[in-house]
Structure of UDP-glucose 4-epimerase:
Amino acid sequence: MTEVSGDQKKQYVLVPGGAGFIGSHCVIELVTAGYTPIAVDNECNSSRECLKRVEQITGCKIISYKIDCLDLESLRDIFKKYPIYAIINCAALKSVGESVQKPILYYKNNIGCLLNLLTCMEEFNVKNFLFSSSATVYGTPKYLPLDEKHPCIGDAITNPYGKSKYICEHILKDTMVAHPEWNIILLRYFNPVGAHKTGLIGENPIGKPNNLMPYIAQVVVGRLPYVNIFGTDYNTPDGTGVRDYIHVVDVAMGHIAAMKQFEINCGLKIYNLGTGKGYSVREMIKALEKASGKTIPYKECSRRSGDLATVYADPTLAAQELGWTAQRNLDEMCEDLWRWQSNNPNGFQ
Ligand code: UFG
């Protein structure tokens, strides 16, 4: 196994949340692109085993620390130790439902981690920051597809998780005013799904999944009895909710494409990471049936509170400015998800 060294072509990239679903895929693509990732994670919703698998996939030893970004002193130690070139911040709590029950925890964690990272950037003169944001900041769409000019109205966001992302975006915009020499990129993810094509890493929610695709996948492997379809009376072609599902590897590659903007001193930039195409809940169930070769039982239920009928991206800006478009189609998302879930029915355990 090669030890990735700091004098490699590119630089150290700190990845808070690097053992999580998106973060671990970013770590792989960073290595592939010649950067040296440093994964830090408090492992509250991730597993050490994930980074071992990342080492297996990349053939590289990954620098990693079990650190909570709320612990400023421990974070400072990392900045003292490594000359960090950029940060890709994937560290956040992300369960919409849980955030309604535990707003203080969500605000403290998601905003606190960001503030500590920004504090370290000031202290250690780090200028490049990439933030994992979410399409949730748009609130209820006034028009579709959602482009980056669509208004973001905090009051219209129905849960503390989404509001924490909205507040973080504002903190970053204000920070840019005070530090015009910094580069800050907000990446608004739509619905990341799928898994690495090796089937070695993928989404591993603790407890019952909140999101559709990991939920369906657990039904297929028999961990859950059936899928609940939340709402069949939406104003959509088949009555079920429509979302812009995007392969997690495409999301990770979007980060690498965005990192190139740092080299041209981009300042503040905002990009959607989506495919531009929406699929309904029923279409997603069918697609995973096709990938797994199994019939998936489901029940039609009432709407989930706070859900929207249709959400999908206009990904044109990322195509124009980053030269990035999502490459992987729905079949590939489902085949890769199925490979991960069937090889690891109990996740990383
Ligand atoms: N759904 C079901 N059954 C389930 C879970 C979901 O029918 O068991 C439906 C939802 O009603 C929705 C669609 O599947 O129509 C997708 O739901 P997800 O929970 O997978 O995703 P959301 O679009 O609700 O939320 C996702 C992320 C959030 C993010 C948001 C941004 O989970 O973190 O996109 O738009 F804020």
In short: The chain has one domain: 12-343. The domain at 12-343 is CATH 3.40.50.720 (Rossmann fold).
